[in-house]
Amino acid sequence: MARPPRRPGNLPAEATSFIGRRRELAAVRRRLAEARLVSLVGPGGVGKTRLALRAAGDLGRGFPGGAWLVELAEIRDSALVGDAVMAALDLRSQTAAGPSAVLAAYLRDKRLLLVVDNCEHLLAATARLVAEMMRAAPGVRVIATSREPLSAPGEHVVPVPPLDLPAPPIDPAASPLDPPLPPPAAGLRRNEAVMLFTERAAAASGTFELTAANQAAVAGLCRRLDGLPLAIELAAVRTRVLSAEQILDRLDDRFGLLTGGVTALPRHQTLRTTIDWSHDLLDPAEQVLLRRLCVFAGRFTLEDVEAVCAQEGLPALDPLASLVDKSLVMKEDAGDLACYRLHETMREYAALRLREAGEEEALGRRFADHYTARCLRAAPQVRRRLAGWLDWMDLEIDNVRAVLRGCVTRDGAARGMNLVYAIGYYWITRAPSEGVRWAGELLACEGAGPAERARAAFVRGFLAVLQSDAASAGPALEEAVTGAGEAGLPSLLAQSLSLASMAASMSGDRTAAGRLGERARAVVEGLDDDAAVLMFLQSRALNGLFEGDLDAVAEAAAEGVRLGRETGDLYSLGMMLLNLGSARLIAGALDEAGPLLTEALRVAHRIDDRVGQYVLLDALGCVAAGSGRARPAALLMGAAETVRTEAGASVLPFLPPLLARAGEAARAELGAAAFEEEYAAGRRLSRDAAIGLALGGPAPPAGTQEGAPEETPEETPLGRRQAEVARLIAEGLSNRQIGERLFISEHTVDSHVRSIMNKLGFNSRAQIAAWTASSGP
């Protein structure tokens, strides 16, 4: 039996059941049918995110490009909204044009649904970017969640009210002094607020049931909490130790104290009061830890909590575990590492408590010191441990960004420049445009010495070279050379001169390139520094490619490959393999070029270097065409175009002649029409599928396209790739190990795991493993 097509996207699996909201879901469907931007607007804690995700999950099957979640809660800088959208779509901005241009190029022919969550603190930037995306991409629809409308062109607003409340029972004949009648049981069980409380209480306590004895208290609780889902869920957790009647009594006391027992609280005060109540039930250590956790801008680990929050003898593990149990802190897993985060409403509450305790400034310093120290401590070994370090940076980048923003705004330019330099490989492999922005902002600040300025200018110049922006690279590297010389930093001086030589060669100034290269050689010869030597060899190899001197390329790149292997420098090894393989390809030595380029692609895949991936897919397409394998050649060249667009990269100068010859050879073998068909099929391949093909995997059947239905046994709801992932989970492999086994990224594995849980109704890897063992996908 054919299964439905696999749908792309990154929507998280629902960890808990979805209750009610039929009217609101219908409203979203209607509005999205006639409008391209629908904003779900309501107070904090009302359930906007859950509603948006459920709507997107239901509607996603109508979008070939899938449904994608963009989370803005942890973004504090309006300049990073575009970066957040690209990260959600798994894109990179490796061009000087920036995120908006990359998004416009990528989305232009896509039909997909974006859920942009928690926009209220970035309204103007979000509205501007959404408008730009919708102008560039007619097939894109957006669901936004916010406490107020975006006020963007074409926006349709769907208010998100609290859940329906159970109606209080009325007996016209009763005296006001008589006790209230219990509500009708049948109607109560259908009430959305009561359903939510009952289900969450049962999950929390394991024994809770709605009965005739407690139904009046449950109905009263839901009314008292004004139908706010977050407040109801927090109260439901307390059924582990209190009855519904006891919870209501305690809330009645608190609410009555605040209102004099006369009027209802406004909804924002209802939520604040409920959180206050939950907070007051914590022991002192838990209260201190909760308020201190707000200092983290994004996800955090137990190690981070111990370093930043657990001071003055405050324990970390037990209070943190207790806060998770009480649903005040959310636990997430990133690969093999447990990490945590605060709900945005809880973060705001904790920040108020931190301010009231007078700890805001001290915690901010500890936070900045912790992340700065970790980055600076790791920097000398990053080149040798790049893959694992990048995994850590992917987890912690929002916290590092918060430190950098503080450096820009609070006279911390020297610290910020050192930090930008220490995490340079993150900008190089993940976010060149963002790195350019941080380096530029810091260089515009006063108060840093020549050493710090030289480091920031070096990063700025390095990233400009990667972006093929020689005009910006030149001045930045000139400042880096001057500053490194003044500060007595010979390794940085040598690397800056080598990069400056590359920038000059890119701009066509061979005289300057040669002069700068000789200056770099003179400095390198007096050093025993692997980083300086590798950068010099890279400049020689790249300049040789630009100048057509294949002997120079081969000599420099061969030595670079040897040194890259010896030092464990994955980034340099990948670049040198690419240089050497390209030289062999240009010379027509396909038997030598193929293995070198294949190994380079494995490295680029491991560290997720998108520019390297695009170049290598093109180069291996040329190898395939020259070897008489026309169909794989067309597929790989088509896939390379898509990967290049997703990275916002420009075409390297040595590639066009090679691609032209490869295209002619493949067309001659396939015929023009068949070549164009296969090239188009290659463009539709996912990046992981294209890399698998380039590394020797099978080509998709002729005439098929990525995402087409595949045959699968009737008894399993999982697709082929999901079945593979499930089987490897059952074998005990981590997401990273599964990615290495299947030649896909850890991010993609995580998406598959969430999809498997969603399809099977599971919430743990153990359940997947047990299901696999019993039924076997």
From TrEMBL:
<dbReference type="InterPro" id="IPR011990">
    <property type="entry name" value="TPR-like_helical_dom_sf"/>
</dbReference>
<feature type="compositionally biased region" description="Low complexity">
    <location>
        <begin position="695"/>
        <end position="707"/>
    </location>
</feature>
<feature type="region of interest" description="Disordered">
    <location>
        <begin position="695"/>
        <end position="720"/>
    </location>
</feature>
<dbReference type="InterPro" id="IPR027417">
    <property type="entry name" value="P-loop_NTPase"/>
</dbReference>
<dbReference type="InterPro" id="IPR000792">
    <property type="entry name" value="Tscrpt_reg_LuxR_C"/>
</dbReference>
<dbReference type="Pfam" id="PF25872">
    <property type="entry name" value="HTH_77"/>
</dbReference>
<dbReference type="InterPro" id="IPR016032">
    <property type="entry name" value="Sig_transdc_resp-reg_C-effctor"/>
</dbReference>
<dbReference type="GO" id="GO:0003677">
    <property type="term" value="F:DNA binding"/>
</dbReference>
<dbReference type="GO" id="GO:0043531">
    <property type="term" value="F:ADP binding"/>
</dbReference>
<dbReference type="InterPro" id="IPR058852">
    <property type="entry name" value="HTH_77"/>
</dbReference>
<dbReference type="InterPro" id="IPR002182">
    <property type="entry name" value="NB-ARC"/>
</dbReference>
<dbReference type="Pfam" id="PF00196">
    <property type="entry name" value="GerE"/>
</dbReference>
<feature type="domain" description="HTH luxR-type">
    <location>
        <begin position="711"/>
        <end position="776"/>
    </location>
</feature>
<dbReference type="Pfam" id="PF00931">
    <property type="entry name" value="NB-ARC"/>
</dbReference>
<protein>
    <submittedName>
        <fullName>LuxR family transcriptional regulator</fullName>
    </submittedName>
</protein>
<dbReference type="InterPro" id="IPR036388">
    <property type="entry name" value="WH-like_DNA-bd_sf"/>
</dbReference>
<dbReference type="GO" id="GO:0006355">
    <property type="term" value="P:regulation of DNA-templated transcription"/>
</dbReference>
